[in-house]
User: What shape does this take?
Amino acid sequence: MIKILIDCFGGDHCPEAPVSGALAALKANPDLYLILTGDESLLRKELEGKAYDTGRLEIVHAPEVIGCDEKPTDVVRLKRNSSMMKAIILLRDRDDIAAMVSTGSTGALVTGALVRLGRIPGVIRPAFCPILPTMDGGIVGICDSGANVEVTSAHLRQFAIMASLYMENVYGVRNPRTALLNVGKEAEKGDDIRRETYGLLQETESVNFVGNMESRDLLSGKYDVVVADGFSGNVLVKTTEGTALELLKKIKKDIYSRTLYKMGALLMSRMFKEEKEFMNYQNYGGSVLLGTSKVVVKGHGSSKAVAVEKCIEQAYKMEVSRLSGKIETEIAKYEHYDV
Amino acid sequence: MIKILIDCFGGDHCPEAPVSGALAALKANPDLYLILTGDESLLRKELEGKAYDTGRLEIVHAPEVIGCDEKPTDVVRLKRNSSMMKAIILLRDRDDIAAMVSTGSTGALVTGALVRLGRIPGVIRPAFCPILPTMDGGIVGICDSGANVEVTSAHLRQFAIMASLYMENVYGVRNPRTALLNVGKEAEKGDDIRRETYGLLQETESVNFVGNMESRDLLSGKYDVVVADGFSGNVLVKTTEGTALELLKKIKKDIYSRTLYKMGALLMSRMFKEEKEFMNYQNYGGSVLLGTSKVVVKGHGSSKAVAVEKCIEQAYKMEVSRLSGKIETEIAKYEHYDV
Assistant: This one.
């Protein structure tokens, strides 16, 4: 039995989305056991009249609510009875629990995970690794995308190792083509950190390093893993999501501007629906936090049930594939370099 | 008469694109005088049979060619007879020449401009400011987008001042809404440089600072100027261009997958053409280099005639509006802070 905690509050569609996502995941995976954290009466109400295996679902009461503007360090210190902090503490304290999923505040989750859970031995900094679809039908993982706005080349090398193992173990990508985000392809481009990292990755046997990537090529399908500092990685991921969303919105608006276009769009309605689904990040699960001692998956704040279900699936696969142990083994090979 | 140099070699469509762009600009602006640099015989051949005002067009012979892999510092030192370096040196030496336009190597152009032209008094670092279209039909300028991969908060403040003046003087944007690219909206987000810059911009009266911008909102139309370090600004601009291009390419491919879609697309062909034109950076001119002692405009390497014409127009407007003098005046107000 794989036990996973679900933080049921903090996202835009709470608690419906986490609860429905949890029930769907329970149904799909017979060896899954879920623990929901949050206000018990609200959760019981949400579960009312729904069919599920009661032997594999548990509720842990955690009534405190985290406000939008609360500082992450305050949340960690003061909100121990919030659904998120309760989940983090249970994850730390109970050996039988493997992972947690949350759609709450990113800052509080990162801080809470770092302070309370700690890291896999050897890992300097945990990092986020969200997934985006590529235009040839594949996917690409970006690591880091926001947990560390300042990094060193040693951090970036570890991000490359962790993300490669993640893509290989959770998504079955063989020997992931791993690139370094930079302002040009040539080895000497970028700042000192980028040049140092280029050299380090060339001599890192655990990583299939294919050179620098310009951000223009993210969706080309030529790369499986992109390594970045949390600042520019965040810009890379959010710009991609934002541009796709804005462009599809514009096309939709333009269609409504003329009857002729509306007729054309009618013939193409299935295609437009598919394009929209293709770029919908809800379909690609959450952004996993790589490098914490136990598995943490962060779903988008706007996650609906299907997105939460995907997050649970990711957490499940990370645990089943024993990703943490593999990260520890590979990282240890380069430990002499650690800062 | 406004005299502008056109570097006619180095881009993908040379010398046709620069020459045709130059002739179109000459025709449109009666007080424009253009000096083409490059291999004279090739330029004469390109001009053959074309009608233009010979009294306002001059050729300066510069036969050397810059290779793709040449180091910028080598180009500046050794390729004085290349079309680009010749233009930079003429721009420096001749008081009657106001500006130059190039579609050649970005690295060589930045290095050459910094070493040979120098800066507007008070400016610490010149920076690129390309323009992107927003979804509400407006435009947004991003400064810097690649000239400085490492920056301080003093640099970023100057980028904000220069780009605001540019948007106001060249594009007529009144009191440009200026934002700082960051990983979140809150003032305390990002690294120390971002937090310092936030404070500085709040007390900079020359800038209408509206706070942090998340990259997701770049095309929303809520911002006129976005300030960034050259690394993340480069990621911001290239990711936007790349995502739009890849998405339109995917839609085109999907249309050809079914007859029904092809029929629909036929009714919408004009709309699709407009979307493509909308996202075509050729239509928005080049990336101007703000802060050099004379005006330098960098066109995309793939620029066609229309893009080169737009670049010339930008250079012309920058000169006519006396942008450099205005930058000097505003920058001087905060000089006590300079590093």
Q: What stands out?
A: The mean pLDDT of chain A is 94. Chain A touches chain B through 52 residues (CB under 8 Å). The two ends of chain A are 38 Å apart (CA to CA).
